[in-house]
User: Fold this.
Amino acid sequence: NHAEVSAEEEWGRLEPVLTMLLEKIPVPISIDTYKAEVAAKALAAGAHLINDVWGLQKDENIAKVVGEYKAPVIVMHNQKGTDYHHLMGDIFSFLEKSIELAEAQGLSGDQIIVDPGIGFGKTTRQNLEVMARLAEFKALGHPVLLGASRKSTIGNTLNLPVDERLEGTLATSVLGVAAQVDIIRVHDVQANVRAIKMADAIVKEQRGMYYEGA
Assistant:
């Protein structure tokens, strides 16, 4: 139920924040936009990667922009409504098209990051199924990003408001580690880092034991 804004309005809101962050922090900065014009201006200003919640399929020019800058891009699955012929099959088809669009502009490997789109174009039950099958997205051959932090799926499952969803978020982060996702995007960084490090240590030990047993 959000109201869309123009590219000019979006850049007007973004530019002062991006400029300040680039001066103050050394970590890579991701810009969340599906507009080619905003992506071009952000990358020219020094942003490092683009996160497109429409997987390069909303604005036909945005793939060319990320290609020109050789910028990593997060391609997220999204759709209007929650009707699917086959949930996972439809999501895979969408992401495969997004990957093709990025590859056509010269991006490859780790430059293309796939996001199954928890909370976008899906019911709570559909989101839970996608979460339960996260490991399958590794078959796409690119890093997988999980963005479930504080999402409505957690709120609906636990019947909790957005500011009380930390424990539910930690559960999704730990399960993401078990599914071997590569990037986990969260709000409550410290708590999630601790949970993720612990889960990662256990998973690595488990894999080591299996390897030694083999």
Remarks:
- The helical segments are 7-24, 36-45, 62-69, 87-103, 124-132, 152-158, 166-178, 189-213.
- The first strand starts at residue 30 and ends at 32.
